[in-house]
Amino acid sequence: MWKKNLWTPLSPILRRRFPSFSLNSTLNIPSSTIFSSPCSSTAQYSRVFWSSSYDFLGSLKFSRKLCSAQSAEQVHVRCWNCKAAAQTTPFLACDSCRSVQPVDPSVDYFQIFGLEKKYELEDNNLEGKYKDWQKKLHPDLVHSKSEEEKEYAAEQSARVIDAYQTLSKPLARAIYILKLEGVDFDEEQTISDISFLAEIMEIREAVEEAVNSETLLQIQSQVQEKLKHWSQSFSNAFQSGKFEEAVISVQRMTYYVRVNDEIMKKL
């Protein structure tokens, strides 16, 4: 029974290659400085970022990196096509000529949708904002434009899709916001809590043995309550800067999400 694979890591977020930003020459600094993460933030002042690692006993450790970044207000951004100054932030598409702009990796997913950078989302119009961006960025809208702009549209549209999918799901959003703070969540790291693993195995066995949808829905209700609990636990830990506790909460959320996916396949 213990030979069951209780850990099925989430697929890593796709890494995309973005074109060099045209402001390199203006700022007169290496492109690696602009595209570095998390130091490429548009924050005006220096920030302390955290990186994580596990020691030989499996305890999570955090180290700090002091990073500074150029203020977005200090950078004079113009459209690559008509040279008009950016009127909105983030500058994904030009309001003057409607040209899709090159991807700026320093703009995070929260900024794309004009959201405050925190785990609990108070804006219920995320889907509406996503659709609004696609009306401006979708590749089909630039089919008659230059190859350069077609490439920009494909990359911007794909990034907005990824941003929407990430922020709309609590687990993916938790992992992403941790990474923004410099805390890398190791999806391959398993949980050593025997009692928790036993609980997950028991739930999965109940799912396998369920003979009707009513039973599955009852199990799903219990799983979703567990998810809600650990989601709130993550939120509290993250807001308090207790990143080790936040990581533990994300690990448990990952298991319950996987169980919920198994239930959905059987319903």
TrEMBL record:
Domain J: 108-180
Gene Ontology MF, one: protein-folding chaperone binding
Keyword Chaperone: yes
Database matches in NCBIfam families: hscB (TIGR00714)
Pfam families (alphabetical): HSCB_C (PF07743)
Upper taxonomic lineage: Eukaryota, Viridiplantae, Streptophyta, Embryophyta, Tracheophyta
Cellular localisation: Cytoplasm; Mitochondrion
Record keywords: Chaperone, Cytoplasm, Mitochondrion
The protein's name in its UniProt record: J domain-containing protein
Keyword Thylakoid: no
Chief location bin: cytoplasm
Protein family membership: Belongs to the HscB family.
Gene Ontology biological-process entries: [2Fe-2S] cluster assembly; multicellular organismal-level iron ion homeostasis; protein complex oligomerization
Signal peptide: none
Gene Ontology annotations for the cellular component aspect, listed alphabetically: cytosol; mitochondrion
